[in-house]
Amino acid sequence: MAKEKWIVNREISWLAFNHRVLQEAADPTVPLVERLRFLGIFSDNLDEFFKVRVASLRRMVQLDIKAKKLVGGSPRKLLMQIQQIVLEQQKEFERIYFQIIDALKRENIYLVDEHSLPEERREFAHNLFHDEVLPVLTPIMLDEQRPFPQLKDKSIYLAVKLTGKVPHPVKQYALIEVPAEEIGRFIILPPIGRKKFIILLDDMIRLGLPDLFSIFHFSDFEAYTIKITRDAELDIDNDVSKSFLEKIAKGISQRKKGQPVRLVYDQSMPRDLFDFIKRKLELDVLDNIIPGGKYHNFRDFKSFPNIGPRSLEYRKMPLLQHPDMKRHVSLLDTIERKDIFLHSPYQPFSYFLDVLREAAIDPDVTEIRMTVYRLAYDSRVMNTLINACLNGKAVTVVVELQARFNEASNIYWSKKLQEAGATVIFGIQGLKVHAKLLLITRRKEGKTTYLAGISTGNFNEETARVYVDIILLTAHKGLTADIREVFRFFESPYLPVQYRHLIVSPIYMRRQLYALVDRETRNALEGKEAWIILKLNNLVDQDMILRLYKASQAGVKITLLVRGICSLIPGEPGYSENIVAYSIVGRYLEHSRFMVFYNGGDEEYYIGSADWMTRNLDHRVEVFCPVFDPQLRRELREIIDLQLRDNTKKRIITRELDNRYVREPGKRKIDAQMEMYKLLERLYREREKEESHEEGNAEG
């Protein structure tokens, strides 16, 4: 049977994932302001999708690349299919947006524009425009003779049509960049009684157009939002005289001038103005031209202000205290005694910083090594490593300069680390370093010990507030020995390395994953119980999918939790009938990856950084780490069971990609992300009781 029939195109599957984000915006049980913020997340996701994936497809068409194997069909046809889906989602987006705006009115919150602004606040708005907005506006006058200005990615513009009646009908076009970065997109106006008002900066500019163009004799002013999305791929030149860091920095600069891949515009724009812009931008049939509503750059709505009651936002959950991460006790000593899981965003990321800080000042610590992929803009992790250098520690940091959209931040911190005396390794040629590893070397009383951190997500305090991730802290001799080998590979990539416990890409991972799946297949064929549970962000690699299909046909029960892209089609009779697949999209971003294999009853647990995508398995340095500690294995299993019991935020993945919720009428509602707090609280209480009981027995 044709392989393509059993593989869902990754771009189409991704659009189905982003539709799950849109479902959160539509969900009436989600607080109103959070629903607006989900619209912002949906929009931000879509922007990146066009910058990267659609841009790649467009390049294939332009270069006439025969890419059926790469994309599962004709790139041109796929672009047309993508545009159709995006247009349908855009209509749903607009409908949801106006539903939310109407619901906010019932909470006495009004999103007003230049027309609906209350008369009592017009003078205030005009004064604010003159004092704060007008000084940063410089319109660009447009005509057929002058070249059209280079539109920035991530910015929105007002395309303005100016007309006059006296003495002769005249027409002029202009362009205004909306200065959202300088001023902020949302302007809060003074309330009137119980009514509260917000006006978008776009509408504040529309209100002030007569003043902005007062030197002309125009009587009518119309302004329509446009936004351009550009190809975000970095073109890295081959100039051997430049360092890799210089090449990446140059690529970031060139990205701003990347080819347009999408124009989004207000569909109420007059035809003459639209045709003028389209002609001047030289857009053709390959470009996605998306008609929309009055407002664009909805990514700004991720920061929509809450000027109403707290009930319009998610209830702030107190961060859980880990019973083993105690104050005034050496955390390094604690880790040497036992393995520890840290869970974000349920626990403070400061626990990880505390470990780093102690390592930076502990006189017994001689060396700290770490990999970093995406760094926070104001990274306390990097500041702590810089201080470790100043305290005389040997610090080595493997920095991935090609972490898309984080290149500038990573370059900044690389320079800061080098200035402090750290050894900075810029990955390995041809491979991205995506593994998240920490290794601390400690020499105490003549004995050298190693402590490690293995994370499913970035060492990033900003994303740790919303990303569901796990960090394993361990002093296990076998694991730390393997991690030393990983760092040796970074330092000397041409020397052979061997790993006893870790599953490391690109050399070993694919082969070892095959072996793990095939073992379950053999057991099933022999009539033994066999099952696999996988939690991933994305499942795309075709050979891995075919391996899972083969296992299913042998009778292996396979359960998938895939947040994003799932190219596997579950539940197909005779092919994948033993596979079920779910996706959880909710308050937090499910980011942790783990695998469980039944292994004849001797279950094997792994956590890691890798998705089952070709790029992760073959073109990146990734790590899956076994979980040996029985207590942590039970903890991970309970988390899995909780997610599988979710009947609130879990969707079923099917061939139709219809994102049906799992619902159980009459049963208690279970939102796994919210129930996670209760689960961890219970586990920690039980652990403290067990330890108190053991201490009591020891004293007895």
Write up what this structure looks like.
With 700 residues, this protein is α/β, with parallel strands linked by helices. The protein folds into three domains: 3-312, polyphosphate kinase like, CATH 3.30.1840.10; 331-498, Endonuclease Chain A (Endonuclease, Chain A, 2-Layer Sandwich); 504-674, 2-Layer Sandwich (Endonuclease, Chain A). Helices cover 39% and strands 22% of the residues. It contains 20 helices and 28 strands. A nine-stranded mixed beta sheet has the order 18-26-24-23-19-20-21-27-28, with helices on both faces. Strands 10, 11, 12, 13, 15, 16, 17 and 22 form an eight-stranded mixed beta sheet that branches. Helix 2 (32-62) runs antiparallel to helix 4 (75-105). The longest helix is centred in the first third of the chain and has 31 residues, at 32-62. The chain starts with 9 loop residues before the first helix and ends with a helix.
